[in-house]
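Lab notebook, bench 4. The sequencing result for the construct came back, and we need a structural model before the next group meeting so we can plan mutations. Quick request posted to the team channel:

Model the 3D structure of this chain.
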Amino acid sequence: MTATPTPPRTQGSATAVLTGMYAAEAEYLAAGGPGLASFDLLAPYFAPDVVLHQAEALPYGGTWRGHAGMERFFLAMGETWERFDMVAQQFLATGPTAVVLTQIQARSRTTGRELGFPILQTLHIEDDRISEVHPFYWDTAAIAAACRP
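Done. Here's the predicted structure in token form:
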């Protein structure tokens, strides 16, 4: 059983938790991402029992639980997308429930198709860690179609 890393000091700010997590995610992806980089870069920002709910219609749809589930989710994302860039981001609300709007530019690994789309996420933060994430996609059918051969 592995010990859960201690989260960096965030002064109890949801904005600091989110900013740190997105910076860690960028570092994780720059280091090679799923399968190459260590999830330890991201783990401190997520509660050990974190729950991620992805729309079932997506190639990586379903509910992902705990750090192991998050690692599997990132692997599924890496298998789906050759590139997944967060090109613009707005923190619309911060606090115990945060709302983040992110504009994505992505390229499907299977088809090579490029796609731009927004994701609106609600993130629940408890004890300076993200405990639950609900991403809402504008058009899951378009995303699924871009990834289907």
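The longest strand covers residues 81-93.
Will bring this to the meeting.
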